[in-house]
Amino acid sequence: xxxxxxxxxxxxxxxxxxxxxxxxxxxxxxxxxxxxxxxxxxxxxxxxxxxxxxxxxxxxxxxxxxxxxxxxxxxxxxxxxxxxxxxxxxxxxxxxxxxxxxxxxxxxxxxxxxxxxxxxxxxxxxxxxxxxxxxxxxxxxxxxxxxxxxxxxxxxxxxxxxxxxxxxxxxxxxxxxxxxxxxxxxxxxxxxxxxxxxxxxxxxxxxxxxxxxxxxxxxxxxxxxxxxxxxxxxxxxxxxxxxxxxxxxxxxxxxxxxxxxxxxx
Length: 265
Prior knowledge:
Elements: H1 25-38, H2 40-63, H3 71-99, H4 103-109, H5 113-148, H6 160-183, H7 186-206, H8 211-217, H9 219-222, H10 234-261
Helix pairs in contact: 1-2, 1-5, 2-3, 2-5, 3-5, 3-6, 3-7, 5-6, 6-7, 6-10, 7-8
Keywords: Membrane, Transmembrane, Transmembrane helix
């Protein structure tokens, strides 16, 4: 006959530890999207982007000729200021962990830093795509107002421009994030992102031997065809790819290497 022995008085029953599931990349991306609006700087930057887009359309309604008040002419000019401001959002998304001293908590909860970086990159890319939708919406409102107030209000539009706009805004925000990863300091990364490509463009115009390479490395030139509805040639795509390799891929790779190895304190 089998007898059951009761546990001794004061003995601690064995505990069964359930394995902790690591958060999915989708969940981490959602967290990073919330961080973009939770911080004061990120929230005001998003508000500034929205107000700038709307202001461009309003100025066109006031000052542009009636024939120029079209959906195309409302949409395209709104892309440039957004492509300048979005990279700053990418920089703040990356550097906020270090500037606000939350990196220790973040990387303790998610020890694999590359997953956190990937979530941040996905979050800013989604924000960039959302900015294109916002530009389309504001352009549509401007076109409706123009048609109601005597402007042309025409809707003729080459939808390949939407793809171009998506490429422009996503690569712009990734360039900013790349500088943020590389420098890990908000002011330094913002100045570096704004100054270095601009300085290269100026040198390319002033120094004759640099004019040839400038055609391939000056993003203000290589990305310009994306503002047009004309089909891009192979040479134009080649210049875009080469300039992005220099100003986006290389800083991104070097910054990821530095982020993975930097000591968190």
